[in-house]
């Protein structure tokens, strides 16, 4: 398998500068959250680095992958925002040789979350949201909540994202609703 330096080099090739630096910050944030929550630090590093590997691929790469791997055809109704995680995990497997299903699931679920998420998946979902380059109303609150309680952070992000999507008349991927139902009432 690729070591960290080789992985960083592959990410550097795959991503524009701004996105590459986001990925490095997500890695560092994921490592910190992993230490705070007894999560495997190496897996957090790899998942943090890889989570947006496919973000800048053309739509046709995702569409081909959906057909070739027999993924849910419902995916065809969405776009890059959903594909780069769910379908991107398949590209990571094919092109980076990462087969660890914990890591792949953390990539698959980093945008929408899921009703059931391992601590590693929660760490990557939250690291992407609160990395130090993020600057949106509520991000400081999100950081505070997440550092106090990882699951409460998951609930907070999920509610904020759903409110944002509805406010902008955006389609909501069904998994996002499942995440809401599983996490938000539980932390009420
Ligand atoms: O890839 P990043 O920009 O680092 O962040 P991300 O993967 O968490 O989010 C990518 C985009 O996906 C972001 O603009 C919010 C959007 N998104 C999250 N959940 C849904 C969604 N878009 C749609 N249409 N439906 C969702 O359920
Ligand atoms: Fe992403
Ligand atoms: Fe995210
Ligand atoms: Fe990201």
In CATH, the architecture is Orthogonal Bundle
Bound molecules: 2'-deoxyguanosine-5'-diphosphate, fe (iii) ion
Low-confidence stretches: none
Using only C-alpha atoms, the radius of gyration works out to 16 Å
CATH topology (level 3) name:
Hypothetical protein af1432
Q: Bin the strand percentage.
A: under 5%
Keywords:
about 190 residues; mainly alpha; Hypothetical protein af1432; 11 helices; binds 2'-deoxyguanosine-5'-diphosphate; binds fe (iii) ion
Give an account of the 3D structure.
The protein has 11 helices and no strands. With 188 residues, the protein is mostly helical. It has a single domain (4-187), classed as Hypothetical protein af1432 (Orthogonal Bundle), CATH 1.10.3210.10. Helix 3 crosses helix 7. The radius of gyration is 16 Å and the shape is globular. Residues 52, 55, 81-82, 85, 110-112, 128, 161, 165, 170-173, 176 line the site of 2'-deoxyguanosine-5'-diphosphate.
Summarize the structure.
By secondary structure, this protein is an all-alpha fold.
List the helices and strands and how they pair.
Layout (H helix, E strand, L loop, with lengths): L3 H11 L2 H20 L4 H10 L8 H10 L11 H7 L1 H9 L4 H8 L10 H12 L8 H10 L1 H18 L6 H10 L5
Helix pairs in contact: 1-2, 2-3, 2-8, 3-7, 3-8, 6-7, 7-8, 8-10, 9-10, 10-11
Bound molecules: 2'-deoxyguanosine-5'-diphosphate and fe (iii) ion (3 copies).
One fe (iii) ion binds next to helix 8.
